[in-house]
Amino acid sequence: MKVSPDLANGTGGALADPPSLVSAQDHSGPLHHGGRLRAAASHYGLALDQWLDLSTGINPNGWPVPPVPASAWARLPEDEDGLEQAARAYYGASHLLPVAGSQAAIQALPRLRPPARVGVLSPGYAEHAAAWRVAGHAVRALTAGKVDQAVSTSDVLILIHPNNPTGAHFPLERLLAWHDQLAARGGWLVIDEAFMDTTPDQSLCILATHPGLIVLRSLGKFFGLAGARLGFVFAQPNLLARLEWLLGPWTVNAPARWVAQAALKDSDWQQRERPRLVAAGERLGALLLRQGLAPQGGCALFQWVRTPQARDLHQALARQGILTRLFEDPASLRLGLPGTEVDWARLEAALARVVEEVKP
Amino acid sequence: MKVSPDLANGTGGALADPPSLVSAQDHSGPLHHGGRLRAAASHYGLALDQWLDLSTGINPNGWPVPPVPASAWARLPEDEDGLEQAARAYYGASHLLPVAGSQAAIQALPRLRPPARVGVLSPGYAEHAAAWRVAGHAVRALTAGKVDQAVSTSDVLILIHPNNPTGAHFPLERLLAWHDQLAARGGWLVIDEAFMDTTPDQSLCILATHPGLIVLRSLGKFFGLAGARLGFVFAQPNLLARLEWLLGPWTVNAPARWVAQAALKDSDWQQRERPRLVAAGERLGALLLRQGLAPQGGCALFQWVRTPQARDLHQALARQGILTRLFEDPASLRLGLPGTEVDWARLEAALARVVEEVKP
Known about the structure:
The structure is a homodimer. Chain A has helices spanning 5-8, 21-26, 37-44, 70-74, 83-91, 102-108, 127-134, 147-150, 172-184, 237-247, 254-265, 267-290, 310-319, 341-357, and strands at 52-53, 96-99, 117-121, 138-142, 156-160, 188-192, 213-218, 231-234, 297-299, 302-306, 322-323, 325-328, 331-336. Chain A is of the alpha/beta class. In chain A, helix 5 (83-91) runs parallel beside helix 11.
């Protein structure tokens, strides 16, 4: 598989090569993600509505979306329609940019710096490393324990916090010390806080007016609005302006802006949902432990099970119509939350069967 | 205003400059577009709901959107959920890629070629020229009459067809001849067919499997779904794959995919709407003619009035709460369709007043 010199040297102006480029770096195929239920349904020959999809960390009982006004579909989206204001209140931060999901920011940020030495938490959400590599940066994968010693030789450090899929998190003082080191030489600390909403006191988005601190948030996970493609970037106004220019006009669709605005304002729902999700995360951990699959980590929205039987378990559960997210390196499974009592019971019963089945 | 060397020479890997870059090429400020009703409301001190917004070419009576299923908000969007199939049937073309509005393709296409000589129809939708310039291409503005002689010295030709705002269109044989010339040397003919839906027999999207022919369509105008941010690119599968890779995953939000699929399948609505819009476009032309503002061009969804009084007319209409789209070069106004009989009467009455007011 050939890598275009334009990409390999980081100029990236003209992309003349096949679309398999991301995968050339990390994987043997395109990057895999949870939520690909259609592909699973087809592969395992089970109808879509027969599946229990635990392959994502999306809240299965997300914010209840009311009917969207017709004008939101008809009119071009406009800035400052109330969304930015609602987001400033929810996140407690003044400078932010709505983007079409964190993914839009993940792809664009590497284009805002000349080639740099980039450390990325690993295992972790793989799109970060892929996007920085494609833009010509020198990317190093860092386990959580190696981050500290790598900061002094990095220009950019990317953390997923809490980490997906391991659930790893870092003390606030540590994050601030890393940021200080990086910012002192014009570096960036990028923190992807996609799973931060149940622990808002650990978020750094209110500090992201400091040079070199960039925080990503998303409405996909806690609010269960993954289909809406809406996230926010928190950073210095100058960097947000460059990012906005690079992304171009109307990147977030207008119904998503309307729905997100309402969800961000619904503090009653948010306050009920936080403890409910934390309890559900603990319940999932306990369930897995009962089946001999003690999670190595996780957060309110998912649990992470590291086991050499990960592939066998994944396939055996899929044959029962339960989709999980398989990771190869290290061999592990991520399981999201069941949404109903029936789903909880179905997961526990299926696990009891498949754990027997895959015993080495 | 400084243009980053990285951009000026087309490498475009790291964008180190302020976000005012697009405007540095063509304009003294950011590119202006219709539909910016909030800005107008604030500037003219008139409440949002008091305006008649004719500043876009969006169908004011768009496809009636039914309630969207909750699952569309909750789940990540998935390819081949039925949208691609519905689009293949509607457009009569086999190879297409859904994108987050034509704008997403307009910004990405220039990144798929090394620096080239690019001719762009002018006046015309200004984002094309801006996007190719930013990516480092040498862009020439071409009036409709100059296109033919420019083809032999262009690598890429970009037409808006029918043109926005002039309504200019080209015979099929001419388009095919230009495409032949360009394709013979590896060039591209890019046709933005955002306003083509009322004249589907003039579309080239069914021919876009030919190398070097790229056609853009959108659900924003005819279907009146501008808020959804959904369009399609028609091109050779290899080029579509490169574009898809460059844009990344989940670029179109899931509710938009669901709505678009249903709209594309609603052939009863489409068949009623085409003649209705054509008649409305003619009615708008006749109304303008009665007020001494004979349109120089247009299509079913807008009319274009070229007049030295364009700015005065625009401002006088805005003071009456009617927003039009002003163009500076050449001085002209574009007016979209009123949606109700009340709006038609309001436009005619306001025009009668302001035409007297701005008489030189």
